[in-house]
Amino acid sequence: MSKLLLLVIAIAVVYFVLSGLARKRRQRSAPPPVEPMVPCAHCGVNVPRSEALGAAGRFFCSEEHRRLGTG
Fold it and tell me: What's the CA gap between 58 and 51, in Å, rounded?
């Protein structure tokens, strides 16, 4: 009976040690960098700069709005 109790305690200790290490790893990972948002010159909707279409120093949310220009 004492061997069974010792085994249960050992398993519990290993579980808590491993879960603590996993928690620390999750906390260390940095959040993804924030991407700047730019407003569409036609409708004003904010879009990520990497997805915006640029023309004449202005940004647009779609090809249609770029064609239409500022509104």
Answer: 13
Inform me whether the pLDDT recorded for 16 exceeds 80: yes
Kindly report the number of other CB atoms within 10 A of residue 41's CB atom: 21
Per-residue model confidence (pLDDT) at position 71: 65
Per-chain mean pLDDT for the chain? 89
Specify the number of domains making up the chain.
2
Q: What is the DSSP string of 31-52?
A: PPPPPPEEE-TTT--EEETTTP
> Domain containing 48: what range?
37-68
Asked whether the predicted pLDDT for residue 27 surpasses 90, the reply is no
Same domain, 1 and 26: yes
* Same domain? 3 vs 22: yes
Task: Name beta bridge partners: 54.
Answer: 59
Q: Which two tokens stand for residue 31?
A: 């959040």
